[in-house]
Amino acid sequence: MAENKRNPVKRPEKRQKGPAQKAPKGAARSQNDWRNPVRGWLGSHRDSAVQAAIRVLRQPLSSAMTVLVMTIVLALPMGLGVLIGQVERLGVNWQGAAQLSVYLEDQVDAAAADVLRADIASLEEVREARLLDKELALVEFQQHSGMGDALQQLAYNPLPSVIVVTPSSIEGGASALEPLRDRLAALEGVDLVQIDLLWVERLTAILAMMERFTGGLAILLVSALLLVMINTIRLAIESRREEIQVIKLVGGTDAFVRRPFLYIGVLYGLLAGVLAWALLIGGLAWLNSTVRDVAALYQSGFELAGMPAADGLLLVIGAMLLGLVGAWLAVGKHIRDIEPQ
Q1: pLDDT of 97 higher than 50
Q2: What phi, psi does 190 have (nearest 5°)?
Q3: Furthest-apart CA pair in the chain: how many Å?
Q4: Residue 133, SS3?
Q5: pLDDT band at 3 (very low <50, low <70, confident <90, very high)
Q6: pLDDT digits 0-9 by tens, 108-143
Q7: Which residues does the UniProt record annotate as the domain FtsX extracellular (predicted)?
Q8: How far apart, in whole angstroms, are the C-alpha atoms of residue 102 and residue 163?
Q9: How far apart are CA 116 and CA 284, in angstroms?
Q10: What does the domain layout of the chain look like in residue ranges?
Q11: Which stretches does DSSP call E strand in 97-183?
C-alpha cells in the first residue's frame, strides 16, 4: 500500500488537438468542391471520345466510305481556291511589270528617238523609259523568228523604233493609264501607244468569275457534306435505339446520350480534313510539273507554291466543325424521339 501511494497510477492526459488535427477550413473544402465536378466532366468527355473511336473502328468499311466522301467534298473547293489564289499572285506580278509601248514614226532617226526617250523619262507619271532601236529589233527578230533569210531580202526595215515605258503606278488598272497614253500619243514623232495591261485585266476578270463559281460550288458541297453526316449519325442512332432506351431508363440525360455521337462527327471531320490536306499536297505537287512546263514556254519561272500550312490547318478545323454541326443536327431530334417504353 505504501508503494502504491508512493507511485500512484497516472491517468493518460487528454491530448489537445494541434493545428494539423483541426478540421479542414472552408477554403480547402471549397477547393475540393469545384475540382471534383471538373474532373468528372473531363472524365465523361474522355470516355465519350473513347467510345466514339471504338464505334468508328468497329465499322471500318462504312466509316472509310463516309470519310472518303467527306475528303472529296472538302478537297475539291479548297483545291480550286488554292489554285485561283496562286494564279492571282501571278497576275499581280505581271501587273507590276505593266508597260506602255510607244511606237515611233518611221522618219524618226536614232538621235531624235533618244531625245524623245529622255523627254518621256522626265515625266512624273513615268518610272522608266527604255528605247528599243529599230535596227536592233530587226536583228533580234531575225534570230528568233526563223525567217532571217527572208527578212534580209527586204529593201527596208519594216520594224519601228519602240520606247518601252514603265509607269510609276498601275493603281486603277488600264483605265488609270489612259491619261498617260493620251499624253504620250500627243508627242511629236509618236505613231501609236499601246497599253500592255488589258490581257492581265481580262485574266483578273476570269479569276473573279472563277472565285464566284468556287464559292457557289463550296456552298453546294458543304450542304451535301452535312446531309451525309446527318444520315450517317442517324443510322448510328437507330442501330443503338435499344441501348439509348436503357440509358434513359436508368436516368441518363439527352446530353449524356448525345455526346458520343458528337465526338463521332468530330472524328469523321478530323480524319477527312487530314486526308483532304494530304490529297491537296500530292495533287498540287503532281500538277506542278505541268505548270512549270507551260510557264517555261512563256519564259516564266512561275510554279505552284504548294498547299500553305495555314490553309491546311483551316481546312482541318473547318472539317471538324462541319462534322460537329452535322452530328448536332442529326442527334437533336432523334435523341428526343427515343424514349423508354
Answers
A1: yes
A2: -95, 130
A3: 157
A4: coil
A5: very low
A6: 888 888 888 898 888 888 888 888 877 776 666 666
A7: 99-193
A8: 5
A9: 48
A10: 47-94+201-337, 99-196
A11: 100-104, 126-132, 162-167
Of the candidates 246, 171, 244, which has an alpha carbon nearest to the alpha carbon of residue 201?
Answer: 171
Please give the model's pTM, rounded to 2 decimal places: 0.62
**Which DSSP category does 106 fall into?**
T
Rounded Cα distance, 45 and 56, in Å: 17
Decide: helix, strand or coil at residue 192. strand
Q: Which is nearest to 117 in space by CA: 190, 194, 195, 186?
A: 190
Three cell numbers written together for 238: 437507330
The answer to whether residues 137 and 162 touch, using CB atoms and an 8 Å cutoff, is yes
Architecture of domain 99-196: 2-Layer Sandwich (3.30)
Model pLDDT, residue 1: 42
**Residue 240 gets which letter from DSSP?**
T
The H or E element that residue 194 is part of is strand 190-195
**How far, in Å, are 66, 95, 108, 291, 301 from residue 298 at the CA level?**
43, 16, 32, 11, 9
205/112 Cα distance (integer angstroms): 40
Paired strand residues for 267: none
C-alpha distances in Å from residue 200, one per residue of 89, 211, 219, 232, 288 = 12, 16, 29, 47, 22
Binned at pLDDT 50, 70 and 90, residue 317 comes out as very high
The residues, ordered by sequence, that sit 6+ positions from 87 with a Cβ below 8 Å of its Cβ are 203, 207
Residue 306 backbone zone (phi > 0: left; psi -120 to 50: alpha; other: beta): left
Strands (E), the chain: 100-104, 126-132, 162-167, 190-195
What DSSP designation does 299 have?
T
**Span 191-203, average pLDDT:** 74
CA–CA dist 273, 311 (Å, integer): 11
The residue written with cell numbers 446530353 in the block is 255
Which residues in 191-213 are b (16+ Cβ under 10 Å) and which e? eebebbbeebbebbeebeebeee
- pLDDT exceeds 80 at position 181: yes
All cell numbers assigned to 133: 532601236
Amino acid letter, residue 110: A
Q: Helix/strand/coil (H, E, C) string of 28-45?
A: HHHHHHHHHHHHHHHHHH
